[in-house]
């Protein structure tokens, strides 16, 4: 331990990112933090929590009233238990971070010019997604406009091409087939099998068989250029369609980019990031040069598949334990920097099992769990766990908000 603490009356804990992982951590800390000693600030680029698990169904149609059930505002209700009356929500995007030396507090600079000081900083800024999941940030109204525009595109389209056969493309295809069963939908995927090599070939082939059974055309080992997929909208498809890299001609009237995500880390300097833009961390989820700064979720540089379940169920318990240990150890020794790697009371992350549940509309799906020999589970279980309701019933317990 080193560096004396500042004389601030309360320790300021700032969490950037109110996604599924961020809210899971906020709720985990809310039962243990001492409000007489600590304050908490939640910063998010959007004024609302977007439940990404249900977002693909949300942008296809108004089924299940998801616009009300899955898009919850942040507010006083977000802060519960010991955080009640002791938390602040700030709507804004972080543009840069001024780090303190040796574990001392620093500052966040937001896009609106606001500056927020912190003693403990937690980064859970998640991923950026291509259209159609690139929801606006400025207001709920803009988010609703985006959703309505996507619904109109899908409704108007006569032939839809999804560029990318990962989980987003696969689940979107299933949602489209639920609402527009006779509308042609094609998935084009650069790899020879759907998804990626994290998963066994047997599972990847089973996924393809299930999606093709819905009437979806699957083109693997082929691609169109990224610029085509990014720029083309319903009114901009080239006359005569596209010629793929393998020489096939396809003629959709709507092209939707559904390839993978990228980490939201542009506010950090390159020396803190890997070549892929992910945040370098210790097994304690701390930044190596900044022990009072933690990062978790999609943004971390860790060899594993990214996803909300990883952040909420596997990262959050260890991050929460380490933050509480950090606060306790720093307070007891009256220092601002704690070496959690050397502490027996800290939780070290060594990874978690790979698992994926892919919905195929409301009544189908398939999943894989990397336990024992690798278990593939069928549609009835995925329907029960995810596909039918998309876990909508869990959202109020995460956000503290109950839609009327």
TrEMBL record:
Keyword Transmembrane helix assigned: yes
Similarity comment text for this entry: Belongs to the FAD-dependent oxidoreductase family.
Gene3D superfamilies per UniProt: 3.50.50.100
Name recorded for this polypeptide: FAD/NAD(P)-binding domain-containing protein
SUPFAM superfamilies: FAD/NAD(P)-binding domain (SSF51905)
GO cellular component, one term: cytoplasm
All residue ranges annotated as the FAD/NAD(P)-binding domain in the record: 12-303
Ranges annotated as spanning the membrane: 12-29, 365-385
InterPro entries for this protein: FAD/NAD-bd_sf (IPR036188), FAD/NAD-binding_dom (IPR023753)
Assigned keywords, A-Z: FAD, Flavoprotein, Membrane, Oxidoreductase, Transmembrane, Transmembrane helix
The species this protein was found in: Lentinula aciculospora
Gene Ontology terms, MF aspect: electron-transferring-flavoprotein dehydrogenase activity; flavin adenine dinucleotide binding
